[in-house]
Amino acid sequence: MKQELLQLKNLRTSFRIGDEYYAAVDDVSLTVNKNEVLAVVGESGCGKSALAFSVMGLHTRAKIEGNILFKDHDLAHASPGTMNRLRGKDLGMIFQDPLTALNPLMIIGDQIGEVIYLHNKTLSQANRKKKVLELLDKVGIPRPEHTYNQYPHELSGGMRQRVVIAIAIANDPELLIADEPTTALDATIQSQILDLITRLKKDMHAGIILITHDLGVVAEMADRVAVMYAGEIVEIADVMTLFGRPLHPYTRSLLNSVPNAEKDQDELHVIQGIVPSLKNLPREGCRFKDRIPWLDESAHEENPQMHEVTPGHFVRCTCYKHFHFPKERKEEKHHGIS
Amino acid sequence: MNGMWKFTVRRILIMIPQVVLLSILVFIMAKMMPGDALSGLMDPNLDPATLEELREKLGLNDPWYTQYIHWIGDLFHGDMGESFRYKMPVSELIGQRMVNTFWLSLVTLILIYLISVPLGIISGRYNDSLLDQAITGYTYIGFATPLFIFALVLLWIFGFQFGWFPTGGSVTPGSTPGTLDYISSKLYHLLLPAISMALIGTVGTVQYLRNEIIDTKQKDFILTARAKGASESRVYNRHVLRNSLLPIAAFFGYEITGLISGTVFVESIYTYPGMGQLFLESITTRDYSVATALTLLFGIAAILGTLISDIILSLVDPRIRIK
């Protein structure tokens, strides 16, 4: 049975530029269920990380509207004290860059020990150390006793990311947010870290929000996928449906731009244009309109809504019904070898 | 801790060539000054031939490196020559003054850190608040104000107008060394010079600390700390502060160099009998042996300052120790 763990209702996270607030996350509603991996995908700057930070309450100077419902709390309006009790305990977060996510002046043991101490102050020091060593072992650090006393700069990027993961899972969180956990790592290390997260997922019973722009990671790990564009969710579906029958033009463009080793491809599909900056986001009509200019204006909805196409599969705007890829213009084609 | 010792020993070894180079520079500069050790000592009516003979006898006509070796050799025996003005050995003369300057510098340093650390922390933690703007304003004024003017103004206001502080000397004449009265009188005499130096000397550290804190609190590991559920005060005390204080430790050496130039002004203005005052005096009266010895000592103090900085830095920053 599906059990709702986290529910976002009309979440709007805005940042101040000059005297105006601009929403980086604009009216996002979604749910995360227990034991489920929800992937949030999109280009850089589409609001994925802003969404994650809003749930964790890590924005210091943002205006947050709407509701973030989690275990009888509304995180959007929770007091700092409440947030501190939840963070590190029920909410865990894996950060993007393991090279900067650890305190350079603290030994690894103390960094992991701190999160245990903060939520269990009565635990004896010896027991805490024991727990830290178990965690290090759990995340696949070969010599926990040795690493316990090491400083971050003595570890490789992959090892540091394991430590970051150990911090995130130390208190068995119910919701784990992984913000592009493999982006900063080498390709070989990436798959190791993904394997680790997949393995941990099995015995953790946590809901996971996986923020990524890597569709390979999504295919491998996610149960459901939310596609974000310019602060909005444009399509949500379970992972099989989304890869099997993507509907929104943006989703289809994203999938189409993944290089395919099986098909004979002369060129890589590139989505026209760039994600508009926060200040210049189109706030009216279909936000993806400008990047598919070959579609007729009438294809778009005036005020795009989410439409449930099949149960659990939602798409924004009506333009998906009319979407086709632009006809290739031969003279602009770039071949790999000429 | 083993790495720590290796680092410290290596760092001290590096100091030796620095000091040797410094002594050569000081010696050459002293030689380049007009006149020599005899110029002030001799009767101007003396026969030039006799003077030349004396020069030859004292080795003043030897090549500079021979003279340098002699000079260094004497230095090692604590012989820095004779002050022609005070008619006493330079080592003895400086010895008396050094104690005064040491206490003045120490009190100034303590005041500097007592003022700058809290101000820097407040300014950095609550940056762009009204309080921060006030503190930043103070640092700008401090940067713009020359120490010798500021010290004069303080002396005039608190020494002469209000009469709260003594206007010269390092101790009330007639008090017996070793008594409590003597010590408190010493402290009383150096307080105003120390305050004037500290109020100006602190601004660099305040700004430095402020910028470091603002910089550190935007680092990713601060987010990690928050994500652990650490309270705001814990985030600052455990994570921001220690990382921000690193450069302050590195700054310590420069602080000592700054103190040296500070004491030269402040001691002269407050007629405080220390090395700085002696230095200025020795230059204006062309007391060569004193000026040379003081330059060397100041140089060594600066080198020691950076040594202390590096050792402190290696104590608090594990990344330096390993290399």
TrEMBL record, chain A:
UniProt keyword annotation of ATP-binding present: yes
ABC transporter domain segment(s): 6-255
Subcellular location: Cell membrane
Main location: membrane
The keyword Coiled coil is assigned to this record: no
A Pfam entry, by short name: ABC_tran
Keywords: ATP-binding, Cell membrane, Membrane, Nucleotide-binding, Transport
Molecular function per GO: ATP binding
Protein topology in the membrane: Peripheral membrane protein
Family label: Belongs to the ABC transporter superfamily.
Protein name per its UniProtKB record: ABC transporter ATP-binding protein
Species of the source: Tigheibacillus jepli
